[in-house]
Design a protein that fits this description.
Elements lengths: L2 E5 L2 H13 L5 E5 L5 E3 L2 E3 L1 H10 L17 H8 L10 H15 L4 H11 L5 E4 L6 E6 L2 E4 H7 L6 E7 L10 H6 L3 E4 L4 H10 L3 H7 L4 E4 L2 E2 L2 E2 L4 H7 L6 H7 L6 E5 L10 E5 L6 H17 L3
Parallel strand pairs: 1-2, 1-9, 2-5, 9-10, 10-13, 13-14
Antiparallel strand pairs: 3-4, 6-7, 6-8, 11-12
The chain binds ligand FO1.
Length: about 300
């Protein structure tokens, strides 16, 4: 069963890891948000892609939610000693990805080729695709003015009040090679329990991707990012209040209207009429077993749906 999953960072990476255990890993394709990508200290950083590469290759710092396990920080110590910017931390091992990616991008290689090579080097049998090889930047219009994603998320700890979100460059972006065929050729398409507004919307903003989902033969199932009605981590709840969106899975389902055929809801959420097919399960993914179990539930639910 070939599965294509649209994903952001840590929550999505847990699901993709579960899928890569529930299925032959080569049957899994992840199309990853790159709206969080930015240039820091001259280096091109792709946080959601790197979180997925670390997760699938067993290198992730799962407690921290980003970066590598057992990381050392000599580079950051040296940056600090020279009064360099230290609000965004690049570990010594992590640095290797950013240096190599930046050098290869500067030499004219597309991001998708570079990411594919990194994944192969680390023995990842699943396909990891950026949503696009073009530059797209998530920009938040806040009460402190416009902030690029990492300024908002890391430097300002999601504290500014968000008025609107835009995806700079998305209108001119093209889906990465392989993304459209991975959607068209899938037996099931999943939207990971990533932040709908910050992590999934950038993907849907790339011309062609939303249409590919609408045209796909396979059912599209979203896994709700809410557990017991609340976001597991991150600013989803706060953002929904600020954007004037109702709290709860019904509002997220409405947000994905026209894109999804079904919603997998956490069993702790209050039952609600979502207006589309839904299934309930324990969606909290603490240990590997949970991730495999949620992946299997999503696949079983997708199999039960038809287009
Ligand atoms: N998140 C932080 O909260 N603080 C950091 O210093 C930080 C550094 C960092 C470096 C590389 C990387 O791939 C991710 C990093 N993240 C950091 C996580 C990242 O900001 C977010 O988790 C994602 O962009 C949201 O999905």
């Amino acid at each position: 069963m070939k599965v294509t999953v649209l994903t952001g960072g840590v929550g999505g990476a847990k699901l993709v890891l579960g899928l890569a255990h529930a299925l032959p890993p080569a049957d899994v394709t992840a199309i990853v948000n790159t709206g969080d990508d930015f240039t820091h200290l001259g280096l091109r950083v792709s946080p959601d892609i790197d979180t997925l590469l670390y997760t699938l290759s067993g290198k992730a710092n799962t407690a921290q939610g980003w970066g590598r396990e057992g990381e050392s920080w000599s580079f950051m110590d040296a940056v600090r000693s020279l009064a360099g910017e230290d609000w965004f931390a690049l570990g010594d091992g992590d640095l290797a990805l950013h240096v190599l990616r930046t050098a290869r991008l500067a030499a004219g290689e597309p991001l998708s080729t570079i990411v594919g090579d990194f994944a192969r080097r680390w023995g990842i049998a699943s396909t990891v695709l950026p949503m696009t090889d073009d530059a797209v930047a998530t920009i938040l219009d806040t009460d402190e003015g416009e902030l690029a994603f990492q300024r908002y998320f890391v430097a300002r700890r999601c504290e500014p009040r968000v008025k609107a979100i835009r995806f700079e460059g998305a209108d001119r972006a093209h889906p990465a090679p392989g993304a459209l065929s991975a959607i068209a050729g899938a037996d099931a398409i999943l939207i990971a329990p990533s932040n709908p507004f910050l992590s999934v919307d950038p993907l849907l903003a790339v011309p062609g991707l939303r249409q590919a989902l609408a045209d796909a033969q396979a059912p599209v199932v979203a896994i709700s990012p809410l557990v017991g009605g609340r976001a597991v981590k991150g600013p989803t709840g706060k953002l929904m209040v600020e954007l004037g969106v109702d709290q709860g899975v019904a509002a997220i389902t409405a947000h994905y209207q026209g894109v999804i055929d079904g919603m997998l809801v956490d069993e702790r959420d209050a039952p609600a009429d979502l207006g589309i097919a839904s299934a309930r399960t324990d969606t909290l993914m603490l240990a590997l077993d949970d991730r495999i179990r949620v992946a299997r539930s999503a696949l079983a639910f997708a199999r039960s749906l038809r287009r």
